[in-house]
Fold:
Amino acid sequence: MAVGESPVLRDTLTIDFGACPPGCRACEAACARARTVPRVTALDLPAVGFHGAVVCGQCGEPACRDACPTGAIVKGEDGVVRLDEARCVGCGACAIACVWGGVTYDVEAGRAAKCDTCDGRPACVPACPTGALGWLETSSLARRFGRPDPFTPGIGLCPGCAAELAIRLVFRLAGPDTIAFGAPGCAVMLVTGLNGSATTRLPCVTGLMTNTPALMTGVVRQLRRQGRRTRCVAFVGDGTTADVGFQSLSGAVERGEPVLYICYDNEGYMNTGVQRSSTTQRGARTMTTPVGRERQGKAQPAKDVPLLMAFHGAPYVATASVAFLDDFATKLERALAVDDGLAYIHLYSPCHVGWGAPMDSAIEIARRAVETRVFPLWEADHGRLRLTHPVPHPRPIDDFVELMGRFQHLGPAERAALGRAADERYRRIEALGAALGDV
Amino acid sequence: MRTRAPRTDGNLRVMDGNKAAAWGVLLCRPDLLASYPISPQTPLLEQLYKFRAEGRLDAETVEVEGENSALSAAVGAVAAGGRAFTATSSMGLMFMYDAYLYASGQRVPVVMTVATREQCAPHTVSSGQQDIMLVKEGGWIQLITESCQEILDSILVAYRLAEDPTIQLPINVCYDGYYLSHLSEPVRVPTQEAVDRFLAAVGVGKRPVLSTDAPLSFGAFVLGELYAEYRYKHCQAMQRALDLVAALDGEFEAAFGRPWGGSIETYRAEDAEVLLVGTGSACGTLKVAIDRMRAEGLAAGLARIRMFRPFPRRRLAELMRGRRAVGVLDRSVCFGWNAGHLYVDVRATAADLDARIPLVNFVGGLAGADLRRELLEDAVRTTVARGRGEPGPEVVWLGLG
Amino acid sequence: MAAARHHVIVGAGTAGLSAVEAIRRAAPGDAVTILSAEPDAPYSPTVLPHLLAGRIDAARVALRPESFFAPEGCRLRLGTEVSALDAAARRVRLADGSALAYDTLLLASGSEPLRPALENPHGVELLGFVRLADLRSLHARLGDGVRVAVLGAGLIGMELAEALVHRGRGVRVTVIEQERQVLPRSFDAELAGEIAALFESRGVTLRLGQRATALERTGAGVALALSDGSAEAADLVVACVGVRPRAGFLAGAGLATGRGVLADRRMATNLPGVFAAGDVAEGLGADGTPGVHPVLPTAAGQGRVAGANMAGRQVEHEGWLPANAFNFFGRVALSVGATEPGAGQDVVSRSRDGGRGRLVFEGPRLAGASFVGVAADPGALGWLIRRGVPAREHAELLLAHPVAGARWLAARGQREAA
Ligand SMILES: Cc1cc2nc3c(=O)[nH]c(=O)nc-3n(C[C@H](O)[C@H](O)[C@H](O)COP(=O)(O)OP(=O)(O)OC[C@H]3O[C@@H](n4cnc5c(N)ncnc54)[C@H](O)[C@@H]3O)c2cc1C
Ligand code: SF4
Structure:
């Protein structure tokens, strides 16, 4: 942890204040069994008709710690404020300093005691009959976002674009020993800077749309030759990936280059003003698939690049969505651990500008794409394929379609067809999962 | 009494041009070799893979799925601090054109040989210089060789020049497909120690590289004036290469006991009334033709352009000054000018001279068509005739009806 | 972003180190130099009785782990005494003659013992009990069966007496106090009487309402003349008659002082860039009256506020509130806020199962609380007192459930405030 950074609280006890049944005190009993004196206090006060509990909130800047004369109280990297009873002299200063009822004075032992969450397995929580006391696991995402961000604040994409969120997450998780690769597309300046000013403290490379995987090949080979484990991570668009750079990607997959390749799929050439790419969905309106009397949107379904990659033999392939960042982060961590070949992540990242949707809709569209089965979330880890976010009860396709102007010309029949295609896509993955999943 | 010391100029072996190139590359100890087969350079790559298999060459090998990736992988390795090599010909060069421009714009000192070949269509795999001529404006340094020895030597020069901190540019070492790539000649292979010494001034640690130790942005997005600055500096580096190549010739001789030759080779040019200008292996025949025409009393000489890019304009202008006529031999076609590419350059160079000199262009040897001695003798005669004021077409298509 | 500043902290105690913590949070790039006159790794004098009693070993009293001082830009200089302050030049002078420049300065030099006014014609050695050096002297002279006279039954004196008893080895302890009760500034007479009885039951001789007027050497020992004309025999005399801010070295610096270095709610003194916190400071109380309040929670709170302000923030201290907690021979006692009712205040009290509680109210509001022999929550009670929470209607609840009652009232109020 850097100087000045307060440790971030992660998982935490929660209390529904006043939601305890009268006379319960089960939490105190459980705590006492686990940890000598109870550190959670049951406020069982029939005289005033109140039944609740309080416990230490693991303050960010704990006053008890500052007051302790022996350094017995320490806030750990995990956010938990722990009291080392072997150092405690029982002066009680911490109990005076804490106004939250977080420090208990153990009269018998002549020492202070406080909750340390039983190191993440609080004994009180399972004992609570009503759920007044809970254990909230801060999403692992918050934990992952806690890592240092190598990018400058305020980098320019269209307002509301979720790609920035994704980029920051990717390179936070990749860590400082990483080289970032971009290719022409809307995110490229974000990755590699503009006119002599960098946006990241990582070394970065702007490749061509046609050659990024090959460039990465040269770089990673040379680095490995020097005995370096530096990670090479590309964050490039669907035109680069599915169309003009497809060959170079295919070559790198086949050769097993140890790099991480992330395609952020916004279903088209958005940087050049919204033209179709091979990942654009059937029916979608773009500038090269406009809607007129004779033609209405794209005539062909989207190229399923992640599935191609899985069958291409890439050791790790996953789809991900900006609306399911935890899922994305888990996949990133897996992908970053791969060293026996190319890891490929296909990230669904809506372009609200190109898709004709409001500025605040990117995440919602992405969420519905998953929930309508338009974009199934899955991974294939060394041949084992599984859905990571099963959608047993899909939302109607209209929930997805209605969010975007690009589908407004579709009639009920076309929409239904889109829904069927989504279903088919999903079931294909499901069937593959059954066939190629855990054995 | 004679002592026998190991010769720094190396042992004599008989080998073809591809193999000579392979030896040159081997001696330069590249870190990475990226390859995609295409005739007529393929035997060069095969030879390098053989060296690799035998354990003589310690390099990463990347068998790519196309030439664009071949050059790009080489660029990546160089960017990360390594020395890389790749080779191509003809359509392969065309297929890597975006990466070709990328490599020079990024100032990546990669070395790539081109066994020159005609373009398709019409479909052909035969010798010609159209491929390298089509990329001559791509910001690379281009060396065009005449013999198998010169191929090997030029690869050594190329790494030394490309990686020089003041240059930092990619280099093509070009040799005529089949005429040189498949022609066997005796070649002196220098010792590894001599090459190591020659290259000691350049290499790893002598330039900024991609590394998380000292992060830098490789290929940032650039607009307007800053872009102009990049281009200006690129041109300046090109200009410096002209000077450095002259100096390197001396270094080369000191290292290997024989000159490499510099940007232009002259042949019987001192007292020549007319000057022929050409590149590559055809100049061998041209020299014979000149000898024979001299015997007939025609005072012709030759300037063979060895460094084609940057173009040795001042030196060539000096050589042209005071001649009665200049004839240019081209094995490629510059559409639009409807003449040869070299001819266009020579024409531009002529503007540096005070006096107007008659110029004539001979286009021939396309797609492996034989540039027979007789055709070249005719070319010399025609040049002499133009010098005497005889009229005729500006472009003469040799061997064409 | 502002350029990195250099903060100098005089004193490596609770106040000083809390300030360092706050500076780091607010201005991580700033440089901090921490000076301590003592050669010891930063410790708190609170640990002295516990070390003496053997309740904790010396290896476990470091206020902060070594890593606390490791970051770049942080310098801990032990054995470095400040001898003067030149505020005009923004420099402190060190005892070795050198000077140290600062952008901001924190005075956190703690307290020093008061000397008792008594005749001492033979120059009998008077020990103190506020620094580790004092403890070392005491240790060196504490043989088995030694008679120790403790002057003063305040916080430090009583803790010393308790520690000596706890240590055992036949040491006999007499405490001499001019007031008629022990801990006169912390407890009312009734609760104090209980504590006194506890000490006496452990063999401590209490001479209350007596002042030591003179010391005389008698053969191997010392005779203490008391104000009632009697005498007490002893081998060692330890003066615990109180502490005062350790501010002598600041004389002539132009600092406004009262009983201590005067500081406002931001813990700023009258001199630009100079702050004060902890025992040396005379800050404002919760009720707005200035005073020296030499206890840990105050030192920590003031230090934190001072540090934040030194780093450029605008933070105010909520004001100290009298608060003490003791554990004498396993009997716990604590007091928060007023101990005796003043004008317009009244008391509600209750004794039960050997425990006693006493609440001072001012109208509906809680003004003070003390408990002996029962667990209570001084932090929650303190919060109720500071905020003036109307608690009278819950007096019985607070006395019957000193922990849960106070926590409930405080938690309810805190939720409303949030
Ligand atoms: C025996 C004893 C028991 C106590 N028990 C309790 C208790 O149970 N509960 C409670 O709340 N409080 C207790 N206290 C009081 C508590 O210890 C103090 O209030 C607290 O330590 C004050 O912190 P501080 O940072 O102001 O000063 P200190 O912690 O005393 O630190 C002062 C620092 O300043 C340094 N210093 C002084 N002068 C100079 C100078 N000229 N130059 C450089 N450095 C200098 C010292 O070396 C030291 O590092 C007790 C005190 C004593 C003596
Ligand atoms: S009671 Fe223990 S933990 Fe609390 S302040 Fe005192 S020594 Fe520290």
User: Anything to note?
Assistant: Residues 1-7 of chain A have pLDDT under 50 and may be disordered.
